[in-house]
């Protein structure tokens, strides 16, 4: 089966987000009443697996091994079946 | 080991820089230094022929994912065994700038319990944000364990340039105090950002150029043989590399960066 994984990697709460702060500042200057901006990265991974569970397990492994640094990053994974 | 027998391997991949400057520094001190592409080392399986290993600065693999992450995971997958043997035998490994990021991402630093599977620290986006390329002051904090700085008196203030956008050293928030204590207990803290007179930056920009936790600029492993730092010692090797050298009264031959290379070479001469 083919799956599409949406992996979003963002900062854990408590860590400062200089990119987000800079973006928020400019949005405010453009006239928006923005309280805060958090920046995260989204990886769309296409892969084959035998089941949805296996695809999810693989995605978790990818995050631990490469996509996220546990010191500062949180991640969320959405698994979608590809038609 | 005689100085002229020492062989240093400077690893290179797409996006690394200052490998030539590092080679020049070693050669000027009478040591053999070769720049090798990492693929070449994997193909020839010859890493163990070298006495020391250097990861230079730059933007390996375009800094994609996180600075240093891709090269680090690639190294562990392709040269993990050799790297472990290198560390176990006490052969020195130096990571400069991007090289420091690689060593942290690969788990070779801080390596409280040996090489860690997952990184125990991070070098995050500078705060305030932006690429910083300028000279900074560093205070030497190590008590003599670090093979790369044992020739430098403790609390000596050194001058070197930084050039990075992701150099904010971080520990996990919940383990910050615990890990910092361990750095002190194991004598792993090597350089902290300070001002000209040696006063710590206390996180304040621009003395601390990136918002690093505890003003950390460089650390070593518990054995003192793996060392990573954000500033570039090879860009401060000769005195005349300093931007204001013509206006200074003292004119020594070498700059502060030389001390790092000299220490490493003397460590190898004594130990092997």
Task: Explain what you see.
- The complex is a heterodimer of chains A (83) and B (272).
- With 83 residues, chain A is of the alpha+beta class.
- Helix content of chain A is 34%, strand content 34%.
- Chain A has one domain: Phosphoribosylformylglycinamidine synthase subunit PurS (Mth169, Chain: A, 2-Layer Sandwich), CATH 3.30.1280.10.
- The model of chain A has no long low-confidence stretch (mean pLDDT 96).
- Chain B contains six helices and 13 strands.
- In chain B, a hairpin with a 5-residue loop joins strand 12 (216-220) and strand 13.
- The mean pLDDT of chain B is 97.
- Chain B has a single domain (3-271), classed as 3-Layer(aba) Sandwich (Rossmann fold), CATH 3.40.50.880.
- The A-B interface holds A 12, 14-16, 18-19, 21-22, 64-67, 69-72 and B 65-66, 69-70, 73, 105, 118-122, 124-129, 170-173, 211.
